[in-house]
Design goal:
Elements lengths: L1 H27 L5 H27 L7 H41 L30 H23 L6 E9 L10 E5 L10 H13 L4 E5 L14 H4 L8 E4 L14 H18 L2 E2 L3 E7 L2 E7 L15 H5 L8 E4 L4 H10 L5 E4 L9 E2 L4 E2 L11 E5 L2 E5 L17 E9 L2
Parallel strand pairs: 1-14, 2-3, 3-4, 4-5, 7-8, 8-9, 9-13
Antiparallel strand pairs: 2-14, 6-7, 10-11, 12-13
């Protein structure tokens, strides 16, 4: 019953948005011929009808009826136009609010004040008493509204076609004051948030892996979310990601999506089997999955510690599977400690206040919300309102955190402004 009610409320809200935006479209097309106006109406309501029918179909069909990729693109095809219409609604509402204020002033002001001339009413303007002034819609704001709606629609469409697999190599120097000389200049590659269940272009995915391999890293880290929910999602990509190798090894950890917490399972046993299958996938890839444990890295006779924990996120929303104290046991005496931990909120919540011996934490998780602006002088993403550290390198005292923007995507099958990355770190010895 609750599901039906939510469905009806959402469908009704979408229809109201359509009707509201249609007023702007009709206002701007009123000077065209009857044939042109009818054509615009057929196109507008035709696409609207398809979107609403698609929404109804998604609610009625079983979750796996369309397949993961098809379902994602159908949902994106519904959400993107309505997101664009919401942008348009902001400007239309501003215009309507202004017209309402002007109407109220004209309706209730003294007769001499009400004599201010106003423009004729358009067919879409609300009617009033014959003795009251009427206010026409502002063509300027209506045009601005439609442009405002078109911009995100074009941007998000481009983000699917181009941004989803526009991999960028980001190079970061990590100066560490206790770094042994044997590790000076060591090259580490980081991948994060592959989300293999969302991919739709294997050739492009392979191209990103080849970019990493051309960097010839000594060591590779993967910081979680190999899949969206189910281990089977990575099956078709094993032959691509098993090429990710390095002389000193590939080390990985789990992200919040890897545990299957966001899928429905017929039994607890099925969920446990899924997690075991995912662990087996890491092994098949040739990656050493770190489950609250450490590994001692050796180079040129020197040693440092690598620690990897299960997902640990701050706040009630995110699971806290990891045990950092357990992972550190036996690694206390090494001069440098590197930590793989999926969620960057772990850094402020536990790593910095309780484990100051951790030199660098490597994380992912945020994807930079797959949307934002990044230039040399300005950075913005909706992700910053949820995470203090959401992309790039951060430092507090001698401790550092790097948040990888992610290799894949989830939900929206693209990226706008915040592009997928392969990170290359160079460890630098500091006196």
């Amino acid at each position: 019953m609750n599901r039906i009610l939510v469905f009806l409320l959402v469908a009704g809200l979408l229809l109201l948005i359509d009707l509201y935006v249609w007023q702007a479209v009709r206002t701007l097309s009123r000077g065209l011929s009857d044939v042109a106006q009818r054509t615009i109406g057929y196109v507008y309501w035709g696409f609207t009808g398809l979107a609403l029918l698609a929404y109804i179909a998604l609610q009625m069909l079983p979750p796996d009826a369309l397949g993961r990729i098809t379902r994602t693109f159908v949902m994106t095809g519904i959400v993107m136009p309505y997101l664009a219409k919401l942008f348009a609604v902001l400007f239309i509402a501003a215009d309507d609010a202004g017209r309402l204020v002007r109407w109220a002033i004209g309706r209730f002001a003294k007769p001499e004040a009400a004599a201010i001339p106003v423009s004729p009413s358009s067919p879409s303007s609300p009617s009033s008493l014959s003795s009251s002034p009427t206010i026409s819609r502002s063509d300027f704001l209506m045009k601005t509204a439609l442009v405002a709606g078109a911009v995100p629609l074009v941007a998000f469409s481009y983000g699917i076609v181009s941004g989803a697999h526009d991999y960028r190599v980001r190079r970061i120097k990590l100066p560490l004051k206790n770094l042994p000389s044997g590790f000076n200049g060591l090259k580490i590659a980081q991948l994060s948030d592959i989300h293999s269940g969302s991919f739709f272009n294997k050739t492009a995915v392979k191209g990103g892996v080849e970019m990493l391999l051309r960097e010839k890293p000594d060591l590779v880290f993967f910081t979680g979310d190999l899949v969206n929910s189910k281990a089977e999602e990575v099956r078709d990509y094993i032959s691509i990601f098993d090429k990710v190798r390095a002389p000193m090894g590939v080390f990985s950890t789990l992200g919040n999506h890897d545990y299957g917490d966001y899928a429905e399972w017929p039994s607890p046993e099925a969920k446990r089997k899924n997690l075991n299958d995912l662990k087996a996938a890491h092994k098949q890839l040739g990656w050493q999955l770190m489950m609250d444990e450490n590994h001692i890295l050796e180079a040129n006779g020197d040693k440092i510690a690598l620690i990897g924990i299960q997902n640990w996120g701050a706040g009630a929303r995110w699971p806290k599977y990891g045990d950092l104290a357990k992972a550190l046991r036996g690694a206390e005496d090494y001069p440098v400690k590197l930590l793989l931990s999926h969620d960057p909120s772990h850094w402020d919540a536990q790593v910095r206040p309780k484990f100051p011996e951790i030199d660098v934490m490597f994380a992912g998780h945020t994807h930079g919300m797959q949307f934002g602006i990044e230039t040399e002088l300005f950075r913005w993403s909706p992700s910053q309102y949820a995470y203090k550290q959401w992309a790039g390198l951060y430092q507090e005292g001698d401790q550092r955190l790097y948040v990888n923007r992610g290799y894949g995507y989830i939900g929206y099958p693209g990226r706008v402004g915040i592009l997928p990355e392969v990170t290359i770190f160079e460890l630098v010895q500091v006196a």
